[in-house]
Amino acid sequence: MPPPLLFVSPAVLPVGSDAAHTTHGALMDLVHQLATSLGKAIDAKDPHTMAHSEEVAEVARHLALAMGLSSEMADCIHVAGHLHDIGKIGVPDAVLGTPGSLTPEEWVQMQDHPSIGAAILLPLACLRQTGIVDMVLAHHERYDGGGYPFGLSGSAIPLGARIITLADSLSAMLRTRPYRPAMGFAAACREIVRGAGSQFDPQVATVFLGEAMTVRGMLGPDRDAGTTVRR
């Protein structure tokens, strides 16, 4: 049995007072600012990954709102989108930039990055209690149980992580990687259709397809041309 995720219950803040809402709002503003800065730092590890985390965060938040999630939950997913790859700071550059298939040893190192990221964020109570740590930890799980690090499946994967998985995959497919060219947006949509129920939550995939043209506009006109990025 895979181990349970670390913190699956969002924090319940006191309600009924303006002070409580003000404190929560100020905290989330600070978290957003820090997450944005950290996401940029992650992307800056390679100039070709610039803006990837921002792209994932924006698409994930849009999909969360399109699915009817609360603005508070969408904000948490947005933060997790910025931070989803923070664990790559613990993966050697030589592995991230490998131009071909990874060796078994390199693949093990690559699969460590969600756990590394969660360990980095774990000391921050606001990220634990809002489920953000779990979203980062689970963003490479697959709906069919074939992902990592725990092989979780279906609803055992936090919904925020399922949304980020699709946003992350979309961004990656639209970019040239060392081992393959970029896909066009239509081809990426076909891959998402193909992966619905296996890699992706079918509900998330359905919502994405309904929002595809809006998402395409969010990504900008240059995305089909591709940008070289690492894994």
Automatic annotation (TrEMBL):
Location of the HD-GYP domain: 27-224
Lineage, opening ranks: Bacteria, Pseudomonadati, Thermodesulfobacteriota, Desulfovibrionia, Desulfovibrionales
PANTHER family: CYCLIC DI-GMP PHOSPHODIESTERASE TM_0186 (PTHR45228:SF1), CYCLIC DI-GMP PHOSPHODIESTERASE TM_0186-RELATED (PTHR45228)
Protein name: HD domain-containing protein
Cited Pfam families: HD_5 (PF13487)
Source domain of life: Bacteria
SMART domains named in the record: HDc (SM00471)
Domain HD: 49-173
Gene3D superfamilies assigned to the protein according to its UniProt record, in alphabetical order: Hypothetical protein af1432
